[in-house]
Amino acid sequence: MTTAILTPAQVTAGLPTLRKSAEELTANIHQMALSTLDHAREFGDVRGIASFLNALPKSQRVQAVAAWFRKFSNNVVKLKLSEGAWSAEIRKDRAKDGSDFKMADADETIYADLTTEIAPKALTMAKFLASIERVANSTEILTNGARKVPEEVSEIAAAMIRQIRAA
Length: 167
Description:
Layout: H1 8-43, H2 47-55, H3 62-72, E1 77-82, E2 85-90, H4 103-108, H5 111-114, H6 125-137, H7 151-166
Antiparallel strand pairs: 1-2
Helix pairs in contact: 1-2, 6-7
């Protein structure tokens, strides 16, 4: 892909159009999210929520949209991101009349206004190594009795740390 470089004057001239299209996209996302949430409330069917999240482009704040779904379903909708794909489940103990969903509040709150976007932070070598060490030293056990970090993963992480320190 080759992107044409614009002059400063072209960028300035295009900003109003960019703003308008961004506002329209946000409004479309809100309308579709609200409609998808209402379908889940009415029918207990959350497949549309997972499809919706998976359809959003990388440039959108997908985690903010997911938080929006969780908040306005009172965490009745359970969302999981695994290997780059979203899945959704609905709690079995949900109110069958949909009263646990906060549709009026959802209608009034656009996902982008719900959470603050976090500024990116640089990953330093010290933070990277600390993360690997946490994996290497993890002995946490899940409720099913399995290790949270499999032993072979801990061993690989420990070997990486030893190699880095030896260098």
